[in-house]
């Protein structure tokens, strides 16, 4: 027996180097899965409560606007309260919790024992996506099919990672991809301002440009960087692929979606603003004593064909404009319009429906 124990002594010395070349970590196991489940259920319950609370609170405090909304728009309003809270919780939480984890070059952790808080925030995020998916399907919010596909694509890899003990890989990628929720905060504020009739204010302008900048950083640069890491470091080091395949597909689909929205929606809106505003400033007459405003009774009557990519002046009476231009902005019925910072254009309804603030 002693001979057997001492034979091939080099095998024990070679084991550490062999293990270091591949990932041989202990998965979170049943304890981690159970903890993730309870956090998921608790977060799901809280998000359901917040949605219902936002509905009743808005009906009392914002009844001038809220009660005029359709049922689907009321649900969209309340779901944005959830999405704002979700972004405020998980984005700083994931950044902080991931900073305490020692990641290998393959972006897998040295030990799954250090992933409790990362998985906790991922479980909160999965609960939010499931609640919001239910709201989308029940109330058919604007662009509900797009949002439903987005949430399903985001939810599947999260559930696999959290509740499949045999497939714990890809935690770094999933956690980092959740940081694309950062622009949601300014995006939702922008939408709330639109819905309450403040789409031509400076606050709305600030939110629009913050959203545009954050979208570029966190929904284009970050996803593209993560895809490079995925193909260069993560996938070659994983001993399995089938269970991370949904996450790989989701990462590519979400990246394509974010790039498309940036160039075909947000950038289009940006170009429209800068094409319309200079012409508006030439036509409008600033009323003395009105800070940042224009007295429309002193300005020439005109309307815009913004979606065609140009701006034209059409001197007409109010009645003629209302009859011939169903997309007339709110200028004809407003006493003043903010035109500071090149941002004070109240957009046509068609842009409002399909503009960047529709996304979340």
What are the SSEs and their pairings?
Layout: H1 2-6, H2 10-21, H3 29-61, H4 63-66, H5 71-99, H6 116-139, H7 144-163, H8 171-177, H9 184-195, H10 202-237, H11 245-283, H12 318-324, H13 349-354
Helix pairs in contact: 3-5, 3-6, 5-6, 5-9, 6-7, 7-11, 9-10, 10-11
Which labels suit this protein?
360 residues; mainly alpha; 2 domains; disordered N terminus
Question: What is the overall pLDDT average?
Answer: 76
Total count of domains: 2
What separation lies between the terminal Cα atoms? 67 Å
The coarse silhouette is globular
Order of helices and strands: HHHHHHHHHHHHH
Strand content: under 5%
Please report the number of helical segments: 13
Task: Describe what you observe in this structure.
The radius of gyration is 26 Å and the shape is globular. It has 360 residues and is an all-alpha fold. Mean pLDDT is 76; it is low at 1-26 and 278-355. It starts with a helix and ends in a 6-residue tail after the last helix. It folds into two domains: 28-270, no CATH class; 274-358, no CATH class. The chain has helices at 2-6, 10-21, 29-61, 63-66, 71-99, 116-139, 144-163, 171-177, 184-195, 202-237, 245-283, 318-324, 349-354. It has 13 helices and no strands.
């Amino acid at each position: 027996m002693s001979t057997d124990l001492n034979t091939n002594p080099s095998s024990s010395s070679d084991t550490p180097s062999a293990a270091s070349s591949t990932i041989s970590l202990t998965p979170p196991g049943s304890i981690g899965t159970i903890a993730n489940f309870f956090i998921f259920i608790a977060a799901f319950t809280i998000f359901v409560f917040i949605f219902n609370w936002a509905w009743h609170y808005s009906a009392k405090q914002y009844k001038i606007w809220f009660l005029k909304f359709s049922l689907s728009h009321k649900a969209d309003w309340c779901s944005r309260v959830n999405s704002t809270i979700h972004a405020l919780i998980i984005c700083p939480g994931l950044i902080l919790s991931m900073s305490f984890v020692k990641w290998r070059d393959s972006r897998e952790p040295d030990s799954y024992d250090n992933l409790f808080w990362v998985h906790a925030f991922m479980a909160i995020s999965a609960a939010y996506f499931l609640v919001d998916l239910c709201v989308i399907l029940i109330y058919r919010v604007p662009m509900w099919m797009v949002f439903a596909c987005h949430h399903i694509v985001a939810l599947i890899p999260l559930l696999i990672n959290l509740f499949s003990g045999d497939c714990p890989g890809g935690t770094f990628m999933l956690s980092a991809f959740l940081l694309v929720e950062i622009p949601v905060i300014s995006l939702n504020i922008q939408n709330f301002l639109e819905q309450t009739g403040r789409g031509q204010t400076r606050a709305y302008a600030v939110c629009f440009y913050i959203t545009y900048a954050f979208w570029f950083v966190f929904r284009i640069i970050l996803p593209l960087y993560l895809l490079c890491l995925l193909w260069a470091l993560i996938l070659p080091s994983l001993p399995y692929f089938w269970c991370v395949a949904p996450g790989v597909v989701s990462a590519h689909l979400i990246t394509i979606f974010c790039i498309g929205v940036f160039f075909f929606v947000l950038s289009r809106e940006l170009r429209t603003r800068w094409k319309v505003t200079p012409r508006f400033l030439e036509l409008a007459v600033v009323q003395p004593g009105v800070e940042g405003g224009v007295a429309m009774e002193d300005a020439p009557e005109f309307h815009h064909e913004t979606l065609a990519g140009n701006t034209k002046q059409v001197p007409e009476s109010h009645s003629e404009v209302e009859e011939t231009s169903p997309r007339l902005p709110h200028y004809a019925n407003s006493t003043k319009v903010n035109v500071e910072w090149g941002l004070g254009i109240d957009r046509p309804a068609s842009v409002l429906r399909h503009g960047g603030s529709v996304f979340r």
